[in-house]
TrEMBL record:
Domain named Carboxymuconolactone decarboxylase-like: residues: 35-116
NCBIfam families with a match to the protein in the record: decarb_PcaC
Protein name: 4-carboxymuconolactone decarboxylase
Coiled coil (residue ranges): none
UniProt cross-references to Gene3D superfamilies, sorted A to Z: AhpD-like
Length: 127
């Protein structure tokens, strides 16, 4: 089995981009280094690096879960990452429609607000 830490960092950079990962890595301290290693290995090296779902599919599930749980800072980061996973604005909209039905309109409403802001920044247009 390949080293999931190396694969994790490769996948993390592919999804989130070098600039984001470089910022996160430079902010790492002795205190949180073991935690950062754990999430790079488990989340990025195992879950995100799996071959059953595409990165686009993983993006949709991740966005829906983050919005449903109210983890809006991570949600915003993953909206930005969709440009690298092949997810479209329509994909994001459909994921958030599911959030509205299955997790509640307030969560979806806040997520739509964040997604509109991020997508507008990314496209330079008003949504």
């Amino acid at each position: 089995m390949p080293d999931s830490s190396n694969k994790g960092m490769e996948t993390r950079r592919a999804v989130l981009g070098d600039a984001h990962v470089d910022r996160a890595e430079s902010a790492k301290t002795d205190f949180d280094a073991p935690f950062q290693s754990m999430i790079t290995d488990a989340a990025w090296g195992q879950v995100w690096s799996g071959d059953h779902w595409t990165k686009r599919e993983r993006s949709m599930v991740t966005l829906a879960l983050l919005a449903a749980l109210g983890h809006y800072e991570e949600f915003e980061m993953h909206v930005r990452a969709t440009i690298r996973t092949g997810a479209t604005m329509e994909d994001i909209r459909e994921a958030l429609m599911h959030v509205g039905i299955y997790a509640g309109v307030p969560h979806a409403n806040q997520a739509f607000k964040i997604a509109k802001k991020v997508l507008s920044e990314m496209e330079g247009d008003s949504l």
